[in-house]
Amino acid sequence: MSLKIILYTLPFLFFLYHILVYFHTRVPIVNTPRKYFDQLFYNLKIPKNSTIYELGCGAQANFLFRAQNYKPCKLVGYELSILHACFARFKAKLKKKSQKTPIEIYCQDFWKVSLSDADIVYAFLVPEIVQKVWEKLKKEAKPGTILISLADQIPGEKIWQQIPTRPNDTKTTYYYIYRV
Ligand SMILES: C[S@@+](CC[C@H](N)C(=O)[O-])C[C@H]1O[C@@H](n2cnc3c(N)ncnc32)[C@H](O)[C@@H]1O
Q: Is the CB of 54 inside a 6 Å radius of any atom of ligand 1?
């Protein structure tokens, strides 16, 4: 196969792979823009020794990498897409030496794991799935656990904190934070 064919085929296969993962999870693989985290971490107080999860951490797991600065005791990312999970794991390995708390990445379905020890859960998903995550947390997480949802509100639930991602922009989206 010539190099040209490979170069044309690879992006198509990658795109196809994303579509297949989407049909499985019903959540598109899109990263939280990095600059959104500036506002989040500026406004949110993260206590020391927190146990932090990123549900569907994608290839970057950027929330976990930023949360490292707050001396957490455990940082865990779950990702169903094997390609993205492998990349995130590789990134965590590369940065291992500079990490105070190691970041654990698992290629696993987050519906199948317990979040009972969570203090903070980050989710950039879709409204129906965020709602289901909230139901899961209400069942198994301890009181005080917070769920940070980028862009998706949970109907009928009281928002504990709301943080704009771009405060100077009238079209800003928000982080909606809920507390068990
Ligand atoms: C919108 S992306 C967010 C990526 C990353 N958290 C971020 O904010 O940059 C959502 C990710 O969740 C993953 N995902 C969806 N459902 C999942 C599940 N049940 N278990 C593990 N990962 C899941 C998708 O594969 C996708 O990579």
A: yes
